[in-house]
Protein backbone atom coordinates (compact mmCIF):
# COMPACT_ATOMS: atom_id res chain seq x y z
CA UNK A 1 0.00 0.00 0.00
CA UNK A 2 3.13 2.22 0.20
CA UNK A 3 2.15 3.54 3.60
CA UNK A 4 3.76 3.55 7.01
CA UNK A 5 1.37 3.26 9.98
CA UNK A 6 2.66 4.43 13.34
CA UNK A 7 0.43 3.48 16.29
CA UNK A 8 1.06 4.91 19.73
CA UNK A 9 -2.41 4.80 21.31
CA UNK A 10 -2.69 4.21 25.02
CA UNK A 11 -3.99 0.86 26.22
CA UNK A 12 -2.92 -0.99 23.06
CA UNK A 13 -2.51 -4.72 23.72
CA UNK A 14 0.98 -5.81 22.73
CA UNK A 15 2.83 -9.08 23.00
CA UNK A 16 6.52 -10.02 22.78
CA UNK A 17 8.01 -11.96 19.83
CA UNK A 18 11.59 -12.81 18.88
CA UNK A 19 12.93 -11.08 15.76
CA UNK A 20 14.05 -13.32 12.85
CA UNK A 21 16.48 -12.14 10.15
CA UNK A 22 17.43 -14.25 7.13
CA UNK A 23 15.96 -17.40 8.62
CA UNK A 24 17.63 -17.23 12.03
CA UNK A 25 16.92 -15.53 15.33
CA UNK A 26 18.99 -12.64 16.64
CA UNK A 27 18.70 -14.40 20.01
CA UNK A 28 21.70 -16.74 20.35
CA UNK A 29 22.68 -19.55 22.71
CA UNK A 30 25.00 -17.03 24.47
CA UNK A 31 21.92 -14.89 25.27
CA UNK A 32 20.11 -17.91 26.74
CA UNK A 33 23.08 -18.84 28.96
CA UNK A 34 23.31 -15.25 30.24
CA UNK A 35 19.55 -15.22 30.98
CA UNK A 36 19.94 -18.47 32.96
CA UNK A 37 22.86 -16.94 34.85
CA UNK A 38 20.81 -13.86 35.71
CA UNK A 39 23.19 -11.51 33.81
CA UNK A 40 20.70 -10.62 31.08
CA UNK A 41 17.20 -9.27 31.63
CA UNK A 42 14.06 -8.74 29.56
CA UNK A 43 14.87 -5.08 28.87
CA UNK A 44 18.34 -6.05 27.59
CA UNK A 45 16.81 -8.34 24.94
CA UNK A 46 14.58 -5.48 23.79
CA UNK A 47 17.50 -3.04 23.70
CA UNK A 48 19.70 -5.43 21.73
CA UNK A 49 16.93 -5.95 19.16
CA UNK A 50 16.52 -9.66 19.84
CA UNK A 51 12.87 -9.17 20.77
CA UNK A 52 10.11 -6.63 20.21
CA UNK A 53 6.53 -5.91 21.26
CA UNK A 54 3.94 -6.04 18.47
CA UNK A 55 0.26 -5.12 18.57
CA UNK A 56 -2.67 -6.68 16.73
CA UNK A 57 -2.30 -4.39 13.71
CA UNK A 58 1.41 -5.01 13.26
CA UNK A 59 0.77 -8.72 13.65
CA UNK A 60 -1.35 -8.57 10.47
CA UNK A 61 1.79 -7.90 8.41
CA UNK A 62 4.15 -10.18 10.33
CA UNK A 63 4.94 -13.80 9.40
CA UNK A 64 5.42 -15.43 12.80
CA UNK A 65 6.86 -18.93 13.15
CA UNK A 66 5.10 -20.81 15.92
CA UNK A 67 8.01 -23.09 16.77
CA UNK A 68 11.66 -23.19 15.64
CA UNK A 69 11.62 -26.98 15.18
CA UNK A 70 9.41 -30.05 15.37
CA UNK A 71 10.74 -32.19 18.26
CA UNK A 72 10.88 -35.92 17.51
CA UNK A 73 8.35 -38.13 19.26
CA UNK A 74 11.14 -40.25 20.78
CA UNK A 75 14.76 -39.65 21.68
CA UNK A 76 16.96 -41.67 19.27
CA UNK A 77 19.34 -42.45 22.16
CA UNK A 78 17.21 -43.39 25.20
CA UNK A 79 14.05 -44.20 23.16
CA UNK A 80 11.84 -42.30 25.63
CA UNK A 81 8.77 -40.42 24.39
CA UNK A 82 9.62 -36.73 24.67
CA UNK A 83 7.58 -33.54 24.85
CA UNK A 84 8.81 -30.13 23.65
CA UNK A 85 9.81 -29.31 27.25
CA UNK A 86 12.04 -32.41 27.46
CA UNK A 87 14.64 -30.97 25.04
CA UNK A 88 17.02 -27.97 25.03
CA UNK A 89 17.56 -26.01 21.81
CA UNK A 90 21.36 -25.72 21.53
CA UNK A 91 21.92 -23.51 18.49
CA UNK A 92 19.45 -20.61 18.21
CA UNK A 93 20.74 -18.06 15.71
CA UNK A 94 23.37 -20.39 14.19
CA UNK A 95 24.11 -20.63 10.48
CA UNK A 96 23.10 -24.30 10.42
CA UNK A 97 19.85 -25.15 8.65
CA UNK A 98 19.15 -27.84 11.22
CA UNK A 99 18.26 -27.30 14.89
CA UNK A 100 20.45 -29.21 17.37
CA UNK A 101 18.50 -30.46 20.41
CA UNK A 102 19.65 -32.08 23.64
CA UNK A 103 17.50 -34.65 25.43
CA UNK A 104 17.08 -33.79 29.12
CA UNK A 105 16.71 -37.49 30.02
CA UNK A 106 20.01 -38.82 28.61
CA UNK A 107 21.83 -35.60 27.49
CA UNK A 108 22.06 -37.07 23.99
CA UNK A 109 22.13 -34.63 21.04
CA UNK A 110 19.92 -34.92 17.98
CA UNK A 111 19.55 -32.89 14.81
CA UNK A 112 16.10 -31.97 13.47
CA UNK A 113 15.08 -29.74 10.51
CA UNK A 114 14.36 -26.14 11.48
CA UNK A 115 10.90 -24.71 10.79
CA UNK A 116 12.10 -21.09 10.44
CA UNK A 117 12.40 -20.00 6.79
CA UNK A 118 13.87 -16.89 5.19
CA UNK A 119 10.33 -15.49 4.80
CA UNK A 120 9.64 -15.49 8.55
CA UNK A 121 9.89 -12.12 10.31
CA UNK A 122 9.33 -13.27 13.90
CA UNK A 123 9.34 -16.34 16.13
CA UNK A 124 7.06 -16.93 19.14
CA UNK A 125 8.84 -16.66 22.50
CA UNK A 126 6.67 -19.63 23.45
CA UNK A 127 3.59 -20.82 21.55
CA UNK A 128 1.52 -20.62 24.77
CA UNK A 129 1.85 -16.81 24.53
CA UNK A 130 -0.73 -16.94 21.72
CA UNK A 131 -3.43 -17.51 24.37
CA UNK A 132 -4.78 -15.06 26.93
CA UNK A 133 -4.88 -15.62 30.68
CA UNK A 134 -8.23 -17.46 30.83
CA UNK A 135 -7.67 -19.62 27.73
CA UNK A 136 -4.20 -20.58 29.02
CA UNK A 137 -5.92 -22.26 32.00
CA UNK A 138 -7.30 -24.91 29.60
CA UNK A 139 -4.96 -27.92 29.33
CA UNK A 140 -4.04 -29.13 25.83
CA UNK A 141 -6.15 -26.41 24.13
CA UNK A 142 -4.60 -27.21 20.72
CA UNK A 143 -6.61 -30.45 20.79
CA UNK A 144 -9.98 -28.66 21.23
CA UNK A 145 -12.05 -26.75 18.69
CA UNK A 146 -11.73 -23.01 19.31
CA UNK A 147 -15.36 -22.35 20.45
CA UNK A 148 -14.92 -24.95 23.21
CA UNK A 149 -11.73 -23.26 24.46
CA UNK A 150 -13.62 -19.95 24.46
CA UNK A 151 -16.47 -21.55 26.44
CA UNK A 152 -14.02 -23.20 28.82
CA UNK A 153 -12.26 -19.90 29.53
CA UNK A 154 -15.63 -18.16 29.93
CA UNK A 155 -16.82 -20.70 32.50
CA UNK A 156 -13.55 -20.61 34.44
CA UNK A 157 -14.63 -17.08 35.43
CA UNK A 158 -17.89 -18.44 36.85
CA UNK A 159 -16.30 -21.23 38.89
CA UNK A 160 -16.36 -21.34 42.68
CA UNK A 161 -13.09 -21.53 44.55
CA UNK A 162 -11.02 -19.71 47.11
CA UNK A 163 -11.14 -16.25 45.54
CA UNK A 164 -9.63 -14.51 48.58
CA UNK A 165 -8.06 -15.74 51.81
CA UNK A 166 -9.63 -12.97 53.92
CA UNK A 167 -13.21 -13.78 52.95
CA UNK A 168 -14.27 -13.78 56.62
CA UNK A 169 -13.48 -10.09 56.93
CA UNK A 170 -14.46 -8.83 53.48
CA UNK A 171 -17.95 -7.32 53.36
CA UNK A 172 -18.61 -8.24 49.69
CA UNK A 173 -22.26 -7.99 48.72
CA UNK A 174 -22.19 -11.59 47.49
CA UNK A 175 -19.50 -14.22 47.58
CA UNK A 176 -19.10 -17.92 46.84
CA UNK A 177 -16.63 -20.26 48.52
CA UNK A 178 -15.81 -23.85 47.52
CA UNK A 179 -15.20 -25.93 50.65
CA UNK A 180 -12.44 -28.24 49.48
CA UNK A 181 -10.72 -26.73 46.43
CA UNK A 182 -7.92 -28.83 44.91
CA UNK A 183 -5.00 -28.22 42.61
CA UNK A 184 -5.63 -29.68 39.14
CA UNK A 185 -3.85 -32.95 38.35
CA UNK A 186 -3.18 -31.62 34.84
CA UNK A 187 -1.49 -28.22 35.09
CA UNK A 188 -0.47 -25.55 32.62
CA UNK A 189 2.56 -23.27 32.87
CA UNK A 190 0.52 -20.00 32.99
CA UNK A 191 -1.15 -21.29 36.19
CA UNK A 192 2.15 -20.59 37.97
CA UNK A 193 2.14 -16.99 36.72
CA UNK A 194 -1.29 -16.23 38.18
CA UNK A 195 -0.80 -18.38 41.33
CA UNK A 196 -3.81 -20.54 40.47
CA UNK A 197 -2.55 -23.35 42.71
CA UNK A 198 -2.58 -21.02 45.72
CA UNK A 199 -6.30 -20.35 45.23
CA UNK A 200 -7.75 -23.09 43.03
CA UNK A 201 -11.31 -23.16 41.72
CA UNK A 202 -12.35 -26.78 41.24
CA UNK A 203 -11.87 -30.41 42.23
CA UNK A 204 -10.44 -33.54 40.63
CA UNK A 205 -13.30 -35.93 39.82
CA UNK A 206 -13.03 -39.61 38.96
CA UNK A 207 -15.15 -39.70 35.80
CA UNK A 208 -16.64 -42.57 33.79
CA UNK A 209 -17.92 -41.97 30.24
CA UNK A 210 -21.11 -43.99 30.10
CA UNK A 211 -24.84 -43.68 29.44
CA UNK A 212 -26.55 -44.19 32.80
CA UNK A 213 -30.20 -45.28 32.42
CA UNK A 214 -31.01 -42.08 30.48
CA UNK A 215 -30.38 -39.79 33.44
CA UNK A 216 -27.37 -38.17 31.76
CA UNK A 217 -28.96 -37.46 28.39
CA UNK A 218 -28.39 -34.02 26.87
CA UNK A 219 -25.30 -33.15 28.92
CA UNK A 220 -26.88 -33.99 32.28
CA UNK A 221 -24.49 -35.40 34.87
CA UNK A 222 -24.88 -38.32 37.25
CA UNK A 223 -23.18 -37.75 40.60
CA UNK A 224 -22.16 -40.26 43.24
CA UNK A 225 -24.17 -39.59 46.44
CA UNK A 226 -21.35 -40.85 48.68
CA UNK A 227 -18.92 -38.39 47.07
CA UNK A 228 -21.34 -35.52 47.68
CA UNK A 229 -21.72 -36.60 51.32
CA UNK A 230 -17.92 -36.60 51.64
CA UNK A 231 -17.91 -32.95 50.56
CA UNK A 232 -17.53 -33.09 46.76
CA UNK A 233 -18.78 -29.89 45.13
CA UNK A 234 -19.94 -28.40 48.43
CA UNK A 235 -19.84 -24.63 48.73
CA UNK A 236 -21.04 -21.69 50.80
CA UNK A 237 -22.89 -18.63 49.54
CA UNK A 238 -22.31 -15.41 51.47
CA UNK A 239 -24.50 -12.31 51.20
CA UNK A 240 -23.99 -9.04 53.07
CA UNK A 241 -26.91 -6.81 54.05
CA UNK A 242 -26.28 -3.14 54.81
CA UNK A 243 -28.20 -0.70 57.05
CA UNK A 244 -27.32 2.89 57.90
CA UNK A 245 -28.70 5.42 60.40
CA UNK A 246 -29.23 8.21 57.89
CA UNK A 247 -29.63 11.84 58.89
CA UNK A 248 -32.39 13.91 57.30
CA UNK A 249 -32.88 17.68 56.88
CA UNK A 250 -34.54 19.11 59.98
CA UNK A 251 -32.36 17.20 62.43
CA UNK A 252 -34.27 13.91 62.31
CA UNK A 253 -32.49 10.58 61.82
CA UNK A 254 -33.00 6.82 61.62
CA UNK A 255 -32.59 4.64 64.72
CA UNK A 256 -31.47 1.01 65.11
CA UNK A 257 -33.99 -0.34 67.63
CA UNK A 258 -36.78 -2.83 68.05
CA UNK A 259 -39.73 -0.90 66.56
CA UNK A 260 -42.46 -0.29 69.15
CA UNK A 261 -46.08 -1.26 68.34
CA UNK A 262 -47.12 2.38 67.76
CA UNK A 263 -44.64 2.74 64.84
CA UNK A 264 -46.37 2.90 61.46
CA UNK A 265 -45.96 -0.49 59.67
CA UNK A 266 -44.65 -2.34 62.73
CA UNK A 267 -44.61 -6.12 62.41
CA UNK A 268 -45.82 -8.67 64.94
CA UNK A 269 -43.65 -9.03 68.06
CA UNK A 270 -42.53 -12.47 66.90
CA UNK A 271 -40.77 -10.90 63.89
CA UNK A 272 -38.30 -9.11 66.18
CA UNK A 273 -37.66 -12.07 68.51
CA UNK A 274 -34.10 -12.65 67.17
CA UNK A 275 -32.99 -9.03 67.69
CA UNK A 276 -31.04 -7.71 70.66
CA UNK A 277 -31.88 -4.52 72.53
CA UNK A 278 -29.80 -2.53 70.03
CA UNK A 279 -31.99 -3.81 67.16
CA UNK A 280 -29.24 -6.03 65.70
CA UNK A 281 -29.40 -9.81 65.19
CA UNK A 282 -26.90 -12.13 66.88
CA UNK A 283 -24.36 -14.24 64.89
CA UNK A 284 -25.17 -17.91 64.24
CA UNK A 285 -28.94 -17.25 64.21
CA UNK A 286 -30.88 -19.18 61.56
CA UNK A 287 -32.82 -16.80 59.27
CA UNK A 288 -34.99 -17.33 56.21
CA UNK A 289 -36.87 -15.20 53.68
CA UNK A 290 -38.44 -12.07 55.18
CA UNK A 291 -36.85 -12.39 58.65
CA UNK A 292 -35.66 -9.11 60.19
CA UNK A 293 -31.86 -8.71 60.42
CA UNK A 294 -31.70 -5.09 61.61
CA UNK A 295 -34.64 -3.37 63.33
CA UNK A 296 -34.80 0.24 62.14
CA UNK A 297 -37.27 3.14 62.35
CA UNK A 298 -37.23 6.28 60.23
CA UNK A 299 -38.87 9.69 60.60
CA UNK A 300 -42.23 10.09 58.79
CA UNK A 301 -42.18 11.06 55.15
CA UNK A 302 -43.18 14.64 54.30
CA UNK A 303 -46.98 15.07 54.15
CA UNK A 304 -47.49 11.33 54.54
CA UNK A 305 -50.25 11.72 57.10
CA UNK A 306 -52.91 14.32 57.78
CA UNK A 307 -50.95 17.12 59.45
CA UNK A 308 -52.16 17.65 63.00
CA UNK A 309 -49.68 19.85 64.81
CA UNK A 310 -50.99 18.85 68.23
CA UNK A 311 -50.07 15.15 67.89
CA UNK A 312 -46.55 14.25 66.68
CA UNK A 313 -46.44 12.15 63.51
CA UNK A 314 -45.63 8.45 63.88
CA UNK A 315 -42.20 7.12 62.89
CA UNK A 316 -42.20 4.40 60.21
CA UNK A 317 -40.71 0.91 60.20
CA UNK A 318 -37.80 0.51 57.74
CA UNK A 319 -36.13 -2.71 59.01
CA UNK A 320 -33.66 -4.62 56.82
CA UNK A 321 -34.96 -8.12 56.03
CA UNK A 322 -33.39 -11.11 54.35
CA UNK A 323 -34.29 -11.54 50.68
CA UNK A 324 -37.32 -13.71 49.93
CA UNK A 325 -36.30 -17.23 48.92
CA UNK A 326 -32.91 -17.04 50.66
CA UNK A 327 -31.95 -18.50 54.02
CA UNK A 328 -28.89 -19.28 56.12
CA UNK A 329 -27.02 -18.53 59.32
CA UNK A 330 -25.92 -15.04 60.31
CA UNK A 331 -22.16 -15.28 59.89
CA UNK A 332 -21.07 -11.93 61.28
CA UNK A 333 -22.45 -8.56 62.35
CA UNK A 334 -20.14 -5.60 61.82
CA UNK A 335 -20.91 -2.18 63.36
CA UNK A 336 -18.93 0.77 62.03
CA UNK A 337 -19.32 4.34 60.76
CA UNK A 338 -20.05 5.52 57.24
CA UNK A 339 -18.09 8.29 55.53
CA UNK A 340 -20.57 10.92 56.77
CA UNK A 341 -20.24 9.85 60.40
CA UNK A 342 -23.51 7.95 60.83
CA UNK A 343 -23.69 4.42 62.29
CA UNK A 344 -23.45 1.65 59.70
CA UNK A 345 -24.10 -2.06 60.21
CA UNK A 346 -23.25 -4.90 57.83
CA UNK A 347 -24.80 -8.31 58.45
CA UNK A 348 -23.32 -11.27 56.56
CA UNK A 349 -25.51 -14.35 56.03
CA UNK A 350 -24.00 -17.67 54.91
CA UNK A 351 -25.84 -20.52 53.25
CA UNK A 352 -24.33 -23.98 52.73
CA UNK A 353 -24.96 -25.24 49.21
CA UNK A 354 -24.78 -29.01 48.81
CA UNK A 355 -24.92 -30.19 45.15
CA UNK A 356 -28.51 -30.95 44.16
CA UNK A 357 -30.44 -31.71 40.99
CA UNK A 358 -30.01 -28.83 38.56
CA UNK A 359 -26.68 -27.47 39.84
CA UNK A 360 -24.22 -26.68 37.05
CA UNK A 361 -20.76 -28.20 36.68
CA UNK A 362 -18.24 -27.88 33.86
CA UNK A 363 -14.84 -29.21 32.84
CA UNK A 364 -12.21 -26.83 31.47
CA UNK A 365 -13.12 -27.75 27.89
CA UNK A 366 -16.59 -26.21 27.64
CA UNK A 367 -18.26 -29.50 28.59
CA UNK A 368 -20.91 -28.07 30.87
CA UNK A 369 -23.90 -29.86 32.33
CA UNK A 370 -26.37 -29.93 35.17
CA UNK A 371 -26.90 -32.73 37.68
CA UNK A 372 -29.64 -35.04 36.44
CA UNK A 373 -29.41 -37.67 39.18
CA UNK A 374 -27.53 -38.25 42.43
CA UNK A 375 -27.07 -42.01 42.77
CA UNK A 376 -26.27 -44.01 45.93
CA UNK A 377 -22.76 -45.45 45.69
CA UNK A 378 -24.05 -49.03 45.68
CA UNK A 379 -25.97 -48.37 42.43
CA UNK A 380 -23.01 -46.75 40.63
CA UNK A 381 -20.90 -48.77 38.19
CA UNK A 382 -17.60 -49.99 39.66
CA UNK A 383 -14.28 -51.28 38.33
CA UNK A 384 -12.55 -54.57 39.08
CA UNK A 385 -10.62 -52.79 41.84
CA UNK A 386 -13.88 -51.52 43.36
CA UNK A 387 -13.41 -47.89 42.27
CA UNK A 388 -16.71 -46.07 41.76
CA UNK A 389 -16.63 -42.83 39.74
CA UNK A 390 -17.66 -39.52 41.30
CA UNK A 391 -19.30 -38.48 38.04
CA UNK A 392 -20.76 -40.17 34.98
CA UNK A 393 -20.86 -38.14 31.75
CA UNK A 394 -22.49 -39.09 28.48
CA UNK A 395 -20.30 -40.40 25.63
CA UNK A 396 -22.40 -38.39 23.14
CA UNK A 397 -20.90 -35.16 24.58
CA UNK A 398 -17.45 -35.90 23.08
CA UNK A 399 -17.43 -36.70 19.32
CA UNK A 400 -19.49 -33.88 17.80
CA UNK A 401 -17.86 -31.25 20.02
CA UNK A 402 -14.36 -32.52 19.25
CA UNK A 403 -13.05 -31.84 22.76
CA UNK A 404 -10.16 -34.28 22.43
CA UNK A 405 -8.31 -32.42 25.19
CA UNK A 406 -11.09 -33.46 27.60
CA UNK A 407 -10.24 -37.10 26.83
CA UNK A 408 -6.50 -36.36 27.03
CA UNK A 409 -6.91 -34.67 30.41
CA UNK A 410 -8.76 -37.74 31.72
CA UNK A 411 -5.80 -39.94 30.72
CA UNK A 412 -3.30 -37.42 32.12
CA UNK A 413 -5.20 -37.10 35.40
CA UNK A 414 -5.27 -40.89 35.73
CA UNK A 415 -1.48 -41.08 35.27
CA UNK A 416 -0.96 -38.18 37.69
CA UNK A 417 -3.16 -39.84 40.32
CA UNK A 418 -1.24 -43.14 40.04
CA UNK A 419 2.23 -41.52 40.03
CA UNK A 420 1.38 -38.75 42.55
CA UNK A 421 2.62 -35.96 40.31
CA UNK A 422 1.19 -33.08 38.29
CA UNK A 423 0.96 -33.59 34.52
CA UNK A 424 2.05 -30.76 32.21
CA UNK A 425 -0.82 -29.89 29.85
CA UNK A 426 0.56 -26.54 28.64
CA UNK A 427 -0.58 -25.62 25.12
CA UNK A 428 1.76 -26.87 22.35
CA UNK A 429 4.39 -28.13 24.81
CA UNK A 430 2.59 -30.46 27.24
CA UNK A 431 3.35 -34.12 27.88
CA UNK A 432 2.64 -36.12 24.76
CA UNK A 433 -0.22 -38.59 24.45
CA UNK A 434 2.21 -41.46 23.73
CA UNK A 435 4.11 -40.81 26.97
CA UNK A 436 0.88 -40.74 28.96
CA UNK A 437 -0.32 -44.00 27.39
CA UNK A 438 3.02 -45.66 28.20
CA UNK A 439 2.67 -44.52 31.81
CA UNK A 440 -0.85 -45.99 31.94
CA UNK A 441 0.52 -49.38 30.87
CA UNK A 442 3.34 -49.14 33.44
CA UNK A 443 0.72 -48.50 36.13
CA UNK A 444 -1.25 -51.62 35.25
CA UNK A 445 -3.96 -50.12 33.01
CA UNK A 446 -4.73 -50.51 29.34
CA UNK A 447 -3.18 -47.85 27.12
CA UNK A 448 -6.72 -46.90 25.97
CA UNK A 449 -7.76 -45.75 29.44
CA UNK A 450 -10.73 -48.14 29.31
CA UNK A 451 -11.58 -50.51 32.15
CA UNK A 452 -13.89 -53.44 32.78
CA UNK A 453 -16.84 -52.17 34.81
CA UNK A 454 -19.77 -53.83 36.53
CA UNK A 455 -23.31 -52.52 36.83
CA UNK A 456 -23.96 -51.52 40.44
CA UNK A 457 -27.66 -52.40 40.26
CA UNK A 458 -27.46 -55.90 38.78
CA UNK A 459 -23.81 -56.75 39.51
CA UNK A 460 -23.43 -57.93 35.91
CA UNK A 461 -20.37 -57.07 33.86
CA UNK A 462 -21.01 -54.22 31.41
CA UNK A 463 -20.42 -55.58 27.91
CA UNK A 464 -18.36 -52.65 26.65
CA UNK A 465 -15.19 -51.50 28.37
CA UNK A 466 -15.77 -48.08 29.97
CA UNK A 467 -13.38 -45.14 29.53
CA UNK A 468 -12.50 -43.70 32.95
CA UNK A 469 -10.08 -41.09 34.16
CA UNK A 470 -9.44 -38.19 36.51
CA UNK A 471 -10.36 -34.71 35.31
CA UNK A 472 -10.69 -31.28 36.88
CA UNK A 473 -14.32 -30.18 37.19
CA UNK A 474 -15.57 -26.78 38.32
CA UNK A 475 -18.76 -26.00 40.21
CA UNK A 476 -20.30 -22.90 38.61
CA UNK A 477 -22.33 -20.33 40.52
CA UNK A 478 -25.50 -21.17 38.56
CA UNK A 479 -27.31 -23.13 41.27
CA UNK A 480 -30.95 -24.14 41.57
CA UNK A 481 -31.14 -22.54 45.03
CA UNK A 482 -30.33 -19.18 43.48
CA UNK A 483 -32.73 -19.49 40.56
CA UNK A 484 -35.81 -21.33 41.80
CA UNK A 485 -38.86 -19.12 41.57
CA UNK A 486 -42.61 -19.73 41.93
CA UNK A 487 -45.53 -17.45 42.62
CA UNK A 488 -49.27 -17.85 43.12
CA UNK A 489 -50.45 -14.37 44.10
CA UNK A 490 -48.22 -11.41 44.77
CA UNK A 491 -47.36 -7.79 44.03
CA UNK A 492 -48.55 -6.03 40.87
CA UNK A 493 -47.24 -2.97 39.01
CA UNK A 494 -49.08 0.22 39.87
CA UNK A 495 -49.35 1.50 36.29
CA UNK A 496 -50.58 -1.61 34.42
CA UNK A 497 -51.81 -3.72 37.39
CA UNK A 498 -49.99 -6.69 35.82
CA UNK A 499 -47.76 -8.95 37.98
CA UNK A 500 -44.29 -7.53 38.66
CA UNK A 501 -41.31 -8.81 36.71
CA UNK A 502 -38.33 -10.77 38.00
CA UNK A 503 -37.50 -13.20 40.77
CA UNK A 504 -36.20 -10.49 43.11
CA UNK A 505 -39.59 -8.74 43.05
CA UNK A 506 -41.58 -11.97 43.45
CA UNK A 507 -42.73 -11.52 39.87
CA UNK A 508 -44.93 -13.70 37.72
CA UNK A 509 -43.73 -16.05 34.99
CA UNK A 510 -44.31 -14.45 31.62
CA UNK A 511 -46.75 -16.28 29.38
CA UNK A 512 -45.44 -14.86 26.11
CA UNK A 513 -46.70 -14.55 22.56
CA UNK A 514 -45.30 -17.90 21.46
CA UNK A 515 -46.83 -19.72 24.44
CA UNK A 516 -50.12 -18.07 23.53
CA UNK A 517 -49.70 -19.33 19.94
CA UNK A 518 -49.35 -22.87 21.25
CA UNK A 519 -52.64 -22.62 23.12
CA UNK A 520 -54.35 -21.14 20.05
CA UNK A 521 -53.03 -24.15 18.11
CA UNK A 522 -54.51 -26.44 20.76
CA UNK A 523 -57.81 -24.57 20.65
CA UNK A 524 -57.63 -24.06 24.43
CA UNK A 525 -59.31 -20.64 24.46
CA UNK A 526 -60.32 -20.66 28.13
CA UNK A 527 -56.74 -21.42 29.19
CA UNK A 528 -55.63 -18.28 27.32
CA UNK A 529 -58.34 -16.28 29.09
CA UNK A 530 -57.23 -17.71 32.43
CA UNK A 531 -53.54 -16.91 31.89
CA UNK A 532 -53.77 -13.55 30.13
CA UNK A 533 -56.83 -12.09 31.86
CA UNK A 534 -57.97 -13.71 35.12
CA UNK A 535 -54.44 -14.42 36.41
CA UNK A 536 -52.98 -11.16 35.11
CA UNK A 537 -54.76 -7.79 34.95
CA UNK A 538 -58.42 -8.65 34.45
CA UNK A 539 -60.77 -5.86 35.56
CA UNK A 540 -64.47 -4.94 35.24
CA UNK A 541 -65.59 -1.68 33.61
CA UNK A 542 -69.05 -0.08 33.49
CA UNK A 543 -69.59 0.92 29.86
CA UNK A 544 -72.37 3.22 28.62
CA UNK A 545 -74.54 1.31 26.14
CA UNK A 546 -76.22 4.35 24.52
CA UNK A 547 -75.77 4.59 20.72
CA UNK A 548 -72.91 6.95 19.72
CA UNK A 549 -71.58 7.12 23.31
CA UNK A 550 -69.59 4.05 24.47
CA UNK A 551 -67.70 5.89 27.22
CA UNK A 552 -66.72 4.43 30.60
CA UNK A 553 -69.39 5.15 33.21
CA UNK A 554 -68.57 6.30 36.76
CA UNK A 555 -70.15 6.00 40.18
CA UNK A 556 -71.59 9.32 41.43
CA UNK A 557 -71.69 10.56 45.03
CA UNK A 558 -74.97 8.77 45.77
CA UNK A 559 -73.52 5.42 44.66
CA UNK A 560 -75.49 5.29 41.39
CA UNK A 561 -73.59 4.40 38.21
CA UNK A 562 -74.07 6.80 35.30
CA UNK A 563 -72.24 7.97 32.21
CA UNK A 564 -70.52 11.31 32.81
CA UNK A 565 -70.58 12.16 29.08
CA UNK A 566 -74.23 11.61 28.07
CA UNK A 567 -75.82 11.41 31.55
CA UNK A 568 -77.36 7.97 30.89
CA UNK A 569 -77.85 5.90 34.07
CA UNK A 570 -80.06 3.07 32.83
CA UNK A 571 -78.25 1.57 29.82
CA UNK A 572 -74.93 0.82 31.60
CA UNK A 573 -73.31 -2.62 31.35
CA UNK A 574 -70.54 -4.41 33.24
CA UNK A 575 -67.76 -5.55 30.86
CA UNK A 576 -64.71 -7.65 31.72
CA UNK A 577 -61.49 -6.48 30.07
CA UNK A 578 -57.78 -6.23 30.83
CA UNK A 579 -56.60 -3.19 32.74
CA UNK A 580 -53.91 -2.63 30.08
CA UNK A 581 -56.74 -2.05 27.57
CA UNK A 582 -58.41 0.45 29.90
CA UNK A 583 -55.00 2.16 30.24
CA UNK A 584 -54.75 2.38 26.45
CA UNK A 585 -58.17 4.05 26.30
CA UNK A 586 -57.08 6.59 28.92
CA UNK A 587 -53.77 7.36 27.18
CA UNK A 588 -55.53 7.88 23.86
CA UNK A 589 -58.04 10.16 25.60
CA UNK A 590 -55.16 12.25 26.91
CA UNK A 591 -54.08 12.72 23.27
CA UNK A 592 -57.59 13.77 22.29
CA UNK A 593 -58.41 10.48 20.55
CA UNK A 594 -61.74 9.11 21.73
CA UNK A 595 -62.29 5.36 21.40
CA UNK A 596 -65.92 4.40 21.83
CA UNK A 597 -66.83 0.86 22.92
CA UNK A 598 -69.72 -0.57 20.93
CA UNK A 599 -71.54 -3.19 22.98
CA UNK A 600 -73.40 -6.09 21.42
CA UNK A 601 -75.78 -8.54 23.00
CA UNK A 602 -74.23 -12.01 22.98
CA UNK A 603 -77.57 -13.78 23.18
Detailed description of the structure:
- This protein has 603 residues and is of the alpha+beta class.
- The protein has four domains: 14-125, no CATH class; 137-234 and 357-475, DNA-directed RNA polymerase, subunit 2, domain 6 (Dna-directed Rna Polymerase Ii 140kd Polypeptide, Chain: B, Domain 6, Beta Barrel); 238-353, OB fold (Dihydrolipoamide Acetyltransferase, E2P), CATH 2.40.50; 538-590, RNA polymerase alpha subunit dimerisation domain (DCoH-like), CATH 3.90.1800.
- Helices cover 17% and strands 25% of the residues.
- The protein is built from twelve helices and 33 strands.
- The strands form ten sheets. Strands 11-25-12-23-22-29 form a six-stranded mixed β-barrel. Strands 1, 2, 3, 4 and 8 form a five-stranded mixed beta sheet that branches.
- Helix 7 (404-419) packs across helix 8.
- The longest helix has 16 residues, at 404-419.
- The relative contact order is 0.11.
- The mean pLDDT is 91.
Characteristic terms for this protein:
12 helices, six-stranded mixed beta barrel, five-stranded mixed beta sheet, alpha+beta, 25% strand, Dna-directed Rna Polymerase Ii 140kd Polypeptide, Chain: B, Domain 6, elongated, OB fold (Dihydrolipoamide Acetyltransferase, E2P), 4 domains, 603 residues, 33 strands
